[in-house]
Design brief:
By secondary structure, the chain is mainly alpha-helical. Helix content is about 50%, strand content about 10%. The chain has a two-stranded antiparallel ribbon with strand order 1-2. Helix 3 crosses helix 4.
Length: about 100
């Protein structure tokens, strides 16, 4: 008998443990609360991280935003909705300044 056949129960338990560990890490690594904002002209993920990441390092916050929104790169488009991890009081978003263009 091969090693795999002899130890199939141990291997199955290890695989199950590994999968459950991965699922739990993913579940607890992202915040449970998210907010949605509308991207305005000139927004970048780095600027949004400065406003919304709180005490979380910007690089980690940007990775979490990318995962929440299925982003393959850091390009975001004005007018699109973006889910953000809510590590701060949601009232902060209500105070966000939107600069009007000339003539508005």
């Amino acid at each position: 008998m091969t090693v795999i056949q002899k130890n199939k129960n141990i291997i199955a338990a290890f695989v199950l443990f590994t999968v459950l560990t991965f699922v739990l890490i993913q579940k607890f690594s992202l915040p449970q609360d998210v907010i949605e904002i509308t991207i305005v002209e000139g927004d970048t993920l780095t600027q949004l991280a400065e406003r919304y990441s709180g005490d979380i390092p910007s690089e980690r916050w940007i990775r979490e935003v990318a995962m929440l929104n299925n982003l393959s790169d850091s390009d975001i488009i004005a007018g699109d909705e973006l889910k953000l991890p809510a590590y701060f009081n949601a009232e902060f978003d209500e105070n966000r300044l939107v600069l009007a263009e000339d003539g508005e």
